[in-house]
């Protein structure tokens, strides 16, 4: 899990304002942001962007339309890639999210597989 504790943040010098500034420098109105649960990250930064592909919304959980498939389930089912929790890093997540979005391009929603959670 990605539980961040107060102790982990005690020495952190990178603030939410730093993150917002970095995002604003990296992105323009034409930028397309792609990620997993990206809407939550943007909300956490109090940022709004029009061109967002959140792959957690592209796929449905088997037997429960309201559930969001886990990142590891999506990676394994769609790409046959094992993403271990202890090896998960931001660059790996970004690459896999891009591959998951690319897979969905051109498919009708009824053609996308349902993911076991």
Task: Produce the secondary structure layout.
Layout: H1 6-9, H2 16-26, E1 33-35, H3 38-44, E2 52-54, H4 71-79, H5 90-104
Parallel strand pairs: 1-2
Helix pairs in contact: 4-5
Structural description of this entry:
The structure is a single chain. This protein is mainly alpha-helical and 117 residues long. It has five helices and two strands; from the N terminus they run ααβαβαα. The protein has helices at residues 6-9, 16-26, 38-44, 71-79, 90-104, and strands at 33-35, 52-54. The protein has a two-stranded parallel ribbon.
Annotation keywords:
117 residues; mainly alpha; two-stranded parallel ribbon; 5 helices; 2 strands
Would you summarize the structure shown here?
The chain is mostly helical and 117 residues long. The protein is built from five helices and two strands; from the N terminus they run ααβαβαα.
């Amino acid at each position: 899990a990605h539980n961040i504790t107060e102790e982990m943040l005690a020495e952190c010098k990178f603030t939410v304002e730093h993150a917002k500034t970095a995002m604003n420098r990296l992105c323009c109105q034409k930028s397309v942001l792609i990620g997993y649960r990206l809407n939550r990250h943007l909300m956490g930064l109090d940022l709004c962007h029009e061109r967002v592909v959140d792959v957690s919304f592209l796929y449905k959980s088997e037997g429960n339309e309201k559930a969001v498939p886990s990142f590891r389930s999506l990676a394994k089912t769609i790409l046959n890639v094992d993403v271990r929790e202890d090896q998960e890093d931001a660059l790996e997540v970004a690459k896999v999210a891009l591959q998951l979005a690319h897979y969905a391009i051109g498919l009708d929603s009824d053609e996308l597989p349902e993911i076991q959670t």
